Here is the input.
Amino acid sequence: TTGTGTPLTAWIPVADPEITLEGLALVPGARYRVQVRAIAEVGGATVRSDVVASDGVRITDGEPPQLDLEVDPPAAPTGEPVTLRVDATDNDRVANRRLEILSADGELQWFADLGEVVLDRWQDEYVWDGRDLDGLVAPAGAYVVRATVGDRANNRVVVDAPLQRCDGLCP
Here is the structure.
C-alpha cells in the first residue's frame, strides 16, 4: 500500500527471492507495505498461504542527478553580464536546485535559491549582472559559479565552473 493506504495490486509469480517490478510508478523515499502470498501445487491441488505484510519498504534511488553547467563568457570585464546555463536531469525527478557565485575566498556574491520543485528536467538560463548581494559591482578577480541539484531520494550533485572578472578587457 502507499503512504495514504491506497493498495497497489501487482501479484507476480516469483521464483527468485529478489525481484524487480517494472512499470509501477513508485516514488523514491516513500514507504510502501509489501504483501506476500505463497501459491503452490500440492498433490494436484492449488494451496495458498495467508497473506503476510511487511512493516514497510522504502524505495531508494541510488543514481544521482546529471548536471551540466556552462558560463558564457568564462572571462568578462567587471560590470558586464554573464550568462549561466544549467541542464539537470534525473532518472526520477529533480527535487531541489540552487545556483550561486562565490568569490575566490568562498564569499557568496550572488545566488538564485530556486527551492524545492518536482521537475523532469531543470534546463534554464540565468544572467548575472555582475553585482554582489549589496548591489555593488563585484571587483575583478577569480570567481566560482556553483550549481547544486538534488533528487527526491536526497542524492545531490554539485558542479563548479570558473569565472574570471577583469578590469577592462580580459586577455
